[in-house]
């Protein structure tokens, strides 16, 4: 017995050490990968010196200059606000529609062609029509971005609703749960993985569309600035704004979205 206990403790230490090693090696590998990319970029810019292909140091200097002047933080903040507003709007509307379609078969059969239609309309067309119909204003910009994402959320949440375990609904009827209790204790816990999946794909799609919306019809934001620097042929500034925005979105993905997704599916792994 003592020998078995000792072996179990040793195995546990080895597993813990391996997990700790993976925890540290993953960020290190990411840093090494990005470092290799920067080195390759610098070598390419050195071999082929051109205004259209600035070196990393020049992009960094431009980033520092734009940050010090306040232009980059201001436009980045404006864009992030549009991303947040569009994301919340798309998730709320798309989730409600998806749950309703997943719960009512006849409604799903009737509205499914609509969902397929909006899934296949190009984002650019929706943006242009929104500006034509509602004017070059903030509501049209945010609405156009949200409308591009809503069909994807509908499809994800509809599939999640179809996969609900009917035994929990039966339990809710037996114990006479009210609508709020059904939502909190039956529906949302089972839909959490689908909500996380829709959120993750949504944030990656929305921030790209927001830049197009700003480029076409707004007077501020990262997309507007990129269009301005494009006209000035200032590639260093284009890369500085682009990399700053991408860095913020990667931070949100790694620090907010992925941990939430991991937490939402933890109970399924524990049950398994």
UniProtKB/TrEMBL annotation:
It is a multi-pass membrane protein. Residues 76-256 form the ABC transmembrane type-1 domain. It is found in: Cell membrane. Keywords: Cell membrane, Membrane, Transmembrane, Transmembrane helix, Transport. The chain crosses the membrane at residues 28-48, 83-102, 114-134, 228-252. GO terms for biological process: transmembrane transport. Its main location: membrane. The keyword Protein biosynthesis does not apply. The keyword Isomerase does not apply. One of its GO terms (cellular component) is plasma membrane. PANTHER family: ALIPHATIC SULFONATES TRANSPORT PERMEASE PROTEIN SSUC-RELATED, ALKANE SULFONATE ABC TRANSPORTER-RELATED, MEMBRANE SUBUNIT. Belongs to the binding-protein-dependent transport system permease family. This is NitT/TauT family transport system permease protein.
